[in-house]
Structures are given as structure tokens and as C-alpha cells.
Amino acid sequence: MVEEEIFLKRLQKVREFLMEKGLSAFLFSSYPNVFYLSGLRASHAYVIITEKEAFLLTDGRYFEKAKEILPSFIEPRLIVGDPFKYLKGFLRSLKVEKIGFEKERVPCEFVERLRNKGYRLIGLSQVLKNMRMLKDSTELAIMKEAVRITDRIYRELLNHLRPGLSELEIRGKIVELIFKFSGEGEAFPSIVAGGAHSAIPHWESSRGLIDKGPLLIDMGTLYKGYCSDFTRTLFLGKAESEFKKYFEMVKTAWYKAFEKVKVGVPVYEIDKAVRNYFEKKGVLSYFTHATGHGIGIEIHEFPRIYYQKNRKFLRELPLIQEGMVFTIEPGLYFPGKFGIRLENIVFVEDGEGKVYSEISMDLLEL
Question: Residue 2: which pLDDT band, with cuts at 50, 70 and 90?
Fold first, then answer.
């Protein structure tokens, strides 16, 4: 099976990492990484990979499902009784000395309760970030379908927008349409920001009523375990000249960023292009966040699309590579007045960026 081959390649890369770091095994406990390595979506599960074996440990809520869907080379084990006691006993039974764990993903208590004289725990950060940064063919197909679903949701949503609705009513409609069009839920709490609320980049949708004026909608769907992310700012009624002027700046900034998406170019050049353009236009101080972020199983993944004059920071950011998937989402925010953001997911294919959303970025006046 093609899918089994994909999971086997992922496990093999982890085993190469074990050899590189001198580890006997690695314990993955975070939902995203457990899903990435096993295909199981569970709130309580562990993947343990050694030089020759792979196990998934979970409780009775997920065990039967695990037996059905796990690749043949990952052995399911049922957690019985106290999870920490079971996990410690299992780790001892492997007779391994050095066990890595995701130190940025677990609380201190987790580590303290797992300590044992039979093995040594070694915390490491962002173990799979580079693996997950480059999507395989299965992941790309899922994410492109998530983009198509998001487009359908937005088109249908436009038929329901009108002054007098609350932001939360609109968000509720988004959720309804996600399920209608085969999504599995929100990728994150949808942002519906009318009027001056749009000037707050991560506004929490409220019971406030929308009126004629700017309306920012930032939404995404979850589909087969992967996220989409999409933003448009539209105008209910006739937009004023000032709004149109800044809208065109944001749209131009998006395209300037997109032009930088070429294999081999440092990823920070995407953000730098936006900042250079906004600085030239005298509005850089109104751009208050990074230009984008990696996306996949999680809504925010490596790499961050950001530039700062710090050599160490820039050295840690990768060059653009085939298989990367990230957002480009420049914005301008004028407190007390309005904000404008435009966002698409960009896929790096055939050496350049490709966008699969078919929603225009031109200003829409409803």
C-alpha cells in the first residue's frame, strides 16, 4: 500500500535521527506527531520508535480504532490501569538506555513521573519540524482538497452576509458550511471582525452586530487531519477612497511576497519583500505580524515567514524547498478605524509557488 510506504519512510527518518543523536528510542506524545507517524487521531496515545520496532500505546477509547488503521509495522498496545505506571513498565521492558522525548510538548510533571533508574530520558525540541515542513503527495492532495472546500464555504457564506448579523452568527454559519461541504470542523476559531474590530489582527468574534463597512473573515477547515487557512477583507456597502487605497497596498504586498516564492530563496525574503514595500509606502508601522507561517496538521507550523536583522535568527530559517506549504497574509491595521488582511495558502511545486484557491483578491463590495 502507498500509504504504508509513506509511514514507513517517516519511521525510517526517525530511526536515522536516533542514530544521529545516539538514542535507543524516542517517545512521541503530542497529538500532531502521533498522528503524523501513525495515522491515529487520539487525545491520549504514544508512539515509541526503537531501532527495529515501533509501538503505539493508547487506552480503551482508541484501541480498537488503532488496531484497524495502524500500518502493519506499528504494534498497538492497550494501556491498562495507571497510564504512567504502564508507560514506565513498557519502557523498561524495551531494555533501552537513552529515550528521547518532546520536551517542548510535555509538562514538567510528565517527565518527573516517567523518570526511572532503568533508562535515561533526554528532552529534545522540534524533532519532526523539518520532516513535517515538506509535505508528501498524500498530504498535498489532502490540503488542496481542504482549500477547495474552504473556497466553497466562502462563496456560499457571501450569500448570507448582511448588516444586522452578529459576528458570532456569521461564525456559526461558517461552522455549518464546513460540515455541509465535508470538512471536519474549524481549523481554528474563525475570526469575523466587522468595522473597527478588523483593526485587531486576532479579534475574537463577538456578539457585536456588523454594519455597513469593512468585514474581515479569517477561517479554515480541518479535513482528514489537515488545516486550511484563508482570509479576505470585504466591504458591506460602498467603500471609501481611503479604504480602497490601503486595500490595494495590501493586495500589492501579497503579490510582491508571492514573487519571492522560488526554490532556493531564503524563506525570510518573502516577509522582507512585504516590509520593504510597506516601508516605501510609509505604512510599515501598521503591519504588526509576520507575513505567514507553515501549515499542515497544525495551523501554525515551521517555518515562520518572518524577517528581522538578526544573523542567528536568519540562519535558522530554511531555503524554500519543493513540498513546502505556507501562508502569505500581509495586513495593515489602523486602530479605531479598520484593518485589511488578505491570505492564501501557497504550495511550492515545480520550483515556484502555486495557489489553488480560486477566490479573487480584488475588493468585493456587497
Answer: low
